[in-house]
Design brief:
3 copies of one chain form a homotrimer. The first copy, chain A, has a single domain, classed as YjbQ-like (Jelly Rolls, Sandwich). Chain A contains 4 helices and 8 strands; from the N terminus they run E-E-H-E-E-H-H-H-E-E-E-E. In chain A, strand 5 and strand 6 form a beta hairpin. The two termini of chain A are about 15 Å apart.
Chain lengths: ~140, ~140, ~140
């Protein structure tokens, strides 16, 4: 049963890096050979998040970054940083807001997404990280 | 297997329109005749989102709109708009933050929600849209 | 079938109280004896939310509170409050943004989380509340 879920590892640059993981998730789904299901995607760790967006550079590299900077500024003051003497208080706040998981429908064996809708992992941490992403597909 | 999931289409006005889709989802759940399950609701597209709220006009039409205007202002400057010569950069940012999916428990055949808690679709796009919403019910 | 899902009740202080519910969820999962599954956690009510964070006081009691105060200030002006003569407009807005549900993988009978990643309930309401949290575990 340890092998019941799929997973993949992906390298990020950190600092609000937005990664398109649609193909990674699609491969996990194909591997299960389930055709009518729900795929739950979950990133391990408390400074990254999973959601969907139109994956294009203007939005992924600039507009999302600007919005998160407004919500939790990189150089703001965080009690978390004073406690642990680190620099990623804003990373934690942003990840908590967006959340670590996403559920997508699988119909006819295919992930159901819009043409301009991709599954993304946002890495809010302040340094490059190797991220472990779990995918559980439940259904028939 | 193509018919394993349910779906419905709903018309929105765009511009942060908040639609109560609780009954639409409940009909999909009833149609499956499953009684102990999880219903996953997913909106196709990258400028709309699914969550819950107390669906009353003050909150739905004013307070949520004001909060999203603070997070990603309609008339802000977005690289996405410069690239594509459109006007919905703020729509994409807002939808990415809230996310396209929601999972709700089904017990005794009924969706489990609070009395003042409704399932909503928020359409952040800048024009009226017809939205396709998928519902997958997995369980017994 | 009414007993197919698990649930627990938890007391909060309200006012952005962040509760670590990881052990509560883990007990629900253990009780099902399923080993390869997805656990969906859902809080009943429209002024609370579920997500994950690193549960430590600096972040939970200060930094998250400050970020939510920026997004929807406690003493801002809300149409919801004018309509209902109450004081929790900001609570509704915050809960709508974060969302009431979370899905976590179960592998080998264990919830899959990072070492510094805990499941939290944030109670945004303006008074102490007793919260009902549902947990559905679907799988083998």
């Amino acid at each position: 049963m340890g092998a019941c879920s799929r997973e993949f590892q992906i390298e990020s640059q950190g600092n609000n890096d937005v990664l398109n993981i649609t193909e990674n998730v699609a491969r996990c789904v194909a591997d299960t050979e389930l055709t009518c299901a729900v795929a739950t995607v979950f990133v391990i760790g408390s400074t990254a998040a999973i959601t969907t967006t139109e994956y294009e550079p203007g939005l992924a590299d600039h507009d999302l970054r600007a919005a998160f900077e407004g919500i939790a500024p990189e150089h703001g003051r965080y009690r978390h940083e004073e406690t642990w003497h680190d620099d990623n208080g804003h990373s934690h706040v942003r990840a908590t807001l967006v959340g670590p998981s996403l559920s997508i429908l699988v119909v006819g064996g295919d992930l159901q997404l819009g043409t301009w809708q991709q599954i993304i992992l946002i890495d809010f941490d302040t340094r490059p990280r190797s991220r472990r992403v779990l995918v559980q597909v439940i259904g028939d």
